[in-house]
Each structure stands twice: as C-alpha cells, then as structure tokens.
Design brief:
Bound molecules: 1,4-dihydronicotinamide adenine dinucleotide
Number of strands: 10
Number of helices: 15
Helix content: 40-55%
Strand order of the largest sheet: 3-2-1-4-5-6-7-8
CATH architecture of the largest domain: 3-Layer(aba) Sandwich
Number of domains: 2
Shape: globular
C-alpha cells in the first residue's frame, strides 16, 4: 500500500460504536495503525465482530486480498484505557453526540497525546469550537465527519473551525484523500452542510405524517423522485435516537426556523428505535418475512395527528420536501458553509443518497426554475 502523506500513520479512534468501528476498520485497511478505545468492553467486543465482518466482506467482494485483510486486522488494537495514545498522530472521537461528553473527552485526550497531535471529531452537527475550542493549541482541532456506513459512503466533511490552522486542514485533507475518501471542506457551523440540509428535510417529512399523510405516500413520493429510500425509511436507517438528538440540536441552533416535530421523541420513548444496531421497529417493522409499514402502532402512540384531510399528490409532496432542501442549501451557500453549488451537489449525492439521475440538488433546482 502507498505510504500515507503528512506523517499520519497511527490513529486513535475513541468510541467503538457504529461509526467508530467503521472508521477504525476503513483506516486500518488502508495501511495505518489504529488504536480503538471504548469505555465499555462489550462495545469493543461487538466492534471486533463488526470489523471482522467488514474485512471478510471486502475480501468476498474482491476489494481486498485475504493477505491485506489479515494485515489490516492485525493493525487494530483495542483498549479501555489510555496506553498508546501518546504516540498517535491523529485522534478521531466518535462517542455519543453530546456537547458536555465530547468537551470532557477532549480535555482527557489532550492530557494523553503529544502537543501537535491532530484532534478530530466525527460529530454529525456540533460546531468543532464548542467541543474542542478549549484545548491547548486549538489550531490542531477540526471535524472529520464520515458518513454511515463508512465502508460504502465516499464523502467526508472536513470541518474547519475558527481556530483550525491552514496547516491542520491541509494535513487532514491529504490524509482523507489518501484513505480513498472524497472530502469537501465546510466552515464549522451547526450541522455543517449535509446534516443540516438533510434533517430540515426529514423533519418536514415527519410533519407531513403528523398532518395525516400516510407513511406509504410520503416514502413513495420521494422514491418516485429517485431517492433510493423515502425519508421516513431513512430515519429508521439513521436511527430514531440519532434523529431525535439532531432535531434537538437544530432546534437549539436555529430557533424560530427549525420547529422540531415530536413523533420521533414519542417513538423513542416507546422503544421504537428504527433499524440501527439490529433494532426492529420504527416507521417500519423489520421481520424475517421482510419489512412492513408500522403505521398502526405509530397512530396509537401519537394522539395529536390530523386525520381525514385530503392527501396531496405525490408529485407535490416530493416538490415541497425538495424545496425545503434547496432553501437550506442556499442558506449554507450564502453563509459560506460550503463554497459552490457543485460542492452541495456532490455532498448530497455522495453523503445522503440524492438521486444521481437528477444531477444534484442545485442542478435539479436550476432545471426546475427554483433558483
Ligand atoms: P454509538 O452510540 O453507536 O457509539 C458510541 C460509542 O461511544 C459507544 O460504544 C459508547 O460506549 C462509546 N463511548 C461513550 N462515551 C465514551 C467515552 N467517554 N470514551 C470512550 N467511548 C465512549 O454512536 P454512533 O452512532 O457511532 O455515533 C458516534 C458519533 O458519530 C456521534 O457524534 C454521531 O453524531 C456521529 N455520527 C453518527 C452517524 C450515524 O449514522 N450513526 C453518522 C455520522 C456521524
């Protein structure tokens, strides 16, 4: 394998959940040593199984030779402690999405790593300066936002905060490219580009359901537009828990403009977590025979839903929800979160599944005469 540029050879990954295990496996498969840390030994055990499965799958699909997969696997060490972090060139945290937990973690990390070790967060939405701005030498902090599943999604948002130095951003950019991922640079701001645009859209899709539009109509409308899955099915995939957290974050950062829907909160309280981590119920039920819409259970949980009104045409549902995305993407462009409509189009295609047949979000909006 090619030697990696910018001297980043040994990477600490903290948090061995869905994202941490995916990031650790991907990096190790591309020739770096990885030290994966979690506070719960059971999470490290599960991550070990997940990473083994990813290596096996890569061999089966012809993406890695058996020998490269075996060396990749050997490059991963796991720990519940801090031994070995002093020699890491880069640490990427992927713990729970919580400002206080992440701030505390960065305080702990800086006490164990070298002064120049790059410090990155995989946060979905939190501005990097809020979680890592307090560390000594914050010029080395940044966001590296990988997408789920890491093994399939090429996009990484490289998030540059007010303190991030140009040297840090350049080093990280070289590293991400050497990993075979496709980075776009985002200015640090809540939700960066993809989370912000996507979750404004998901929230409005849930609002349509609360207004009485059936799950089937909403998801079919967007599939007919070309999305590989509808927005409610996508919430199940992302996780109802993650969705609730991100809705909360966006409501906090965009008060008055982001009015969070409440259905996902009700669902979570009732144990409907979507499909993440093998959970079996959300907007759909996932059973051996296949997946079925879970509308009846949702209706029984949510007393405030409107019923009996006319159901809009699918074309109108899709048009309205796409318009929400376009408006938010335009705000991101105006605020300089990303540089160009081409960045928006690339990011939403490669990070969110926007239909390639439509070119890209802004391209579609231009053709549709919206912008
Ligand atoms: P997860 O809940 O699957 O995993 C989090 C892991 O962190 C758990 O194993 C937990 O034991 C561990 N942990 C918690 N506190 C810790 C600490 N102080 N030290 C070490 N380990 C600790 O979470 P997931 O979904 O992997 O998300 C992680 C981060 O990645 C979050 O910031 C999330 O917003 C972000 N993210 C999630 C995506 C997703 O689709 N799930 C996509 C992109 C980013």
């Amino acid at each position: 394998m090619e030697p990696l540029p910018h001297g980043i050879r040994r990477i600490g990954v903290i948090g061995a959940g869905v994202m941490g295990s995916g990031i650790a496996q991907w990096i190790a498969a591309r020739g770096c040593d990885v030290l994966l840390r979690d506070v719960q030994p059971a999470c490290l055990d599960r991550a070990g199984e997940v990473m083994r499965g990813l290596f096996d799958g890569a061999v089966e699909r012809g993406k890695l030779s058996a020998a490269d997969a075996a060396s990749g696997w050997r490059r991963i060490a796991t720990t519940t402690g801090w031994e070995g972090f002093d020699t890491c060139d880069l640490v990427i945290e992927a713990i729970v999405e919580d400002v206080a937990a992440k701030r505390k973690l960065f305080t702990e990390v800086v006490a164990r790593v070298g002064e120049d070790t790059l410090l990155a967060s995989n946060t979905s939405a939190l501005p990097i300066e809020e979680i890592a701005g307090h560390v000594p030498n914050p010029a080395r902090t940044l966001g590296l936002h990988f997408f789920n599943p890491v093994s399939r999604m090429p996009l990484v948002e490289l998030v540059v905060g007010p303190a991030t130095s140009a040297a840090t951003a350049a080093r990280a950019l070289g590293f991400v490219r050497a990993l075979g991922k496709s980075p776009i640079t985002c200015r640090s701001s809540p939700g960066f580009l993809v989370t912000r645009v996507l979750f404004f859209y998901l929230n409005e899709a849930v609002r349509r359901w609360e207004q009485g539009v059936p799950v089937l109509e909403i998801d079919r409308a967007l599939r007919e537009f070309g999305w590989p899955m509808g927005p409610l099915r996508l919430i199940d995939e992302v996780g109802v828990d993650v969705t609730v957290l991100i809705f909360r974050e966006l409501a906090h950062y965009f008060p008055g403009r982001f009015a969070p829907t409440t259905t996902c909160g009700w669902m979570l309280a009732a144990g409907l977590k979507g499909r993440k981590n093998g959970a079996g119920r959300g907007f759909y039920r996932y059973e051996d025979e296949g997946e079925m819409i879970n509308e009846q259970e949702l209706v029984s949980l949510f007393s405030g839903r409107s019923t009996g009104g006319p159901v809009p045409a699918r074309r109108d549902i899709a048009g309205e929800l796409m318009r929400i995305m376009v408006d938010e993407a335009q705000r991101c462009l105006t605020a300089g979160v990303v540089q160009s409509p081409g960045d928006v189009d690339f990011a939403l295609r490669s990070g969110a599944g926007f239909p390639a047949s439509r070119g890209g979000l802004m391209e579609w909006a231009r053709v549709a005469g919206i912008v």
